[in-house]
Amino acid sequence: MDRKYRLLLRGRDSPGATLQQTYDAEDCVDVRDLTTRVTLHLRAHELSPYRHTLVLDGLEYQILNVIRHY
After folding, report:
1. Which stretches of the chain are assigned E, i.e. beta strand?
2. Please, what is the end-to-end C-alpha distance for the chain in angstroms?
3. Cα–Cα nearest to 5, from 57, 38, 54, 39
4. Distance from C-alpha of 46 to C-alpha of 8, rounded to nearest angstrom
5. What's the sign of the alpha-carbon dihedral 21, 24, 29, 33?
6. pLDDT tens per residue across span 21-69
7. Phi, psi of 44 (to 5 degrees)
């Protein structure tokens, strides 16, 4: 059984609205490193709400929480 990661997200330009995205552990996603502001391509199991923002369709989303499901 594959591990899944559910991300609770908030849009950078719409602070009140939240959404959820679910990824398999090995799915690759685009993120922006908060320290260097460089866009990276990481696996879902490597994400950290303290180090990354998620980039979806060119928009940035703050990662509020990462929940691991088995």
Report:
1. 4-11, 18-24, 28-33, 39-43, 52-56, 59-69
2. 7
3. 54
4. 15
5. positive
6. 999 999 999 999 999 999 999 999 999 999 999 999 989 999 999 999 8
7. -60, -35
Helix or strand or coil: residue 26?
A: coil
| CA–CA gap between residue 2 and residue 25 (Å, rounded) | 7
**Residue ranges of domains in the chain:** 4-69
Query: In one letter, which amino acid is 44?
Result: A
Q: Which amino acid appears at position 58 of this protein?
A: G
Q: How confident is the model at residue 16 (pLDDT cuts 50, 70, 90)?
A: confident
How far apart are the C-alpha atoms of 51 and 70, rounded to whole Å? 24
Which residue is associated with the tokens 């602070």?
A: 15
